[in-house]
Amino acid sequence: MPNLEHPAYPAANLLHLESLVPCRESQVSMLLSIFGERQQFSFPSIFIYGHTSSGKTYVMQTLLTTLQLPHVFVNCVEYFTSRLLLEEILIQLQSCSSETEQTSPVHCDTFNDFVRLFKQAVASQDLQDQTLYIVLDRAEQLREMEANILPAFLRLQELTDRNVTVVLLSEIVWELFRPNVGCFEPFTLFFPDYSIGHLQKILSQNHPPEYSADFYAAYINILLGVFYMVCRDLKELRHLAALNFSKYCEPVVRGEANERDTRKLWKNIEPHLKKAMQTVYLREISSSQWEHLQHDGGEPGQLKGLSAHTHVELPYYSKFLLIAAYLASYNPVRTDKRFFLKHHGKIRKTNFMKKHEKTSNHLLGPKPFPLDRLLAILYSIVDNRVAPTANIFSQITSLVTLQLLSMVGQNDQLDGPRYKCTVSLDFIRAIAR
Fold it and tell me: Which end of the chain, N or C, is more open, meaning fewer C-beta atoms within 10 Å of its C-beta?
């Protein structure tokens, strides 16, 4: 018995839609109830939120396309200003009428112009008899635009007096959107994360035709058993499944095992999945490079310059600043003269130094240091002369923003700001190299 039922849409279309959106039947059913029939006025604005890779964008695109509902779909990251966003909506609205019509350039500077042009576009294309859906993906970007954009979109049905519904897709909750002055409250709908059973069902649908569905489902079960605790992103898991399946099939291809020898297949794939754990989310190497490593039996770290931890593009002096910050964090102040002064003279090893020389500073963690000490070490390790310009100080601020340095205490102290270096020794070695 189908889970999706609605009298306004053909049963065949709903059955096809249900097959395209597995494990999201309850959310789609809720959306169909809100939408109603084509000619009925829907809710003015709908706010859909959930974590990344929870199916928000895919479900909305599939729902509107499968049921052939007139819609406009815009990514707010791509159209990052109000003018670009409004003009793109009007351009897509022009193309809703027919495939042959050429879209003319649209100029829209204010939301008042948008309302006027929107009414003209809807009237010219005979869209009054059915609901038009405007979907704004990554809607959190609207908070960076003018203050009137978000409240106006929420009341677009009222402002235009047309049958239109605005759907906002976001990864953050509505409470972080709501303006201080108040606005029209949208209907909120939450998309929960996929459970391990949902991921198993969705990923198992992509099995290659040359292998049985049970064989591929067993492989997905092994993959989720390894990665589910550290990665629940459907896109990443789908990428990992496609990347490592050939290695899982090797004993079957060579004739050493059949599809039911789960234990032998697990022993073959286990070390390769452990290697893949090092590159989850990072994309340190490409798929072709990973397959090359699998055939050669190498380690991911053997590819020079590909690690996301050790290959960071920083400005020239920022690298020296980071090295100087690491030296200042892990070397005691009393050793600066010995390490960074060319003619420091003879230094006696006191009993205090002998007592503590066996204690590694890396075990004690980074120590805070003042700005003047950082600059003094910088001038010592850079070959050419460096002037203390605003460029140097702005690069220090950038390193703090990138969380490679952290500021300790307040910036308004009389002795100046104090910092800590937060990167590891391997990171510094890679930059120094």
Answer: N
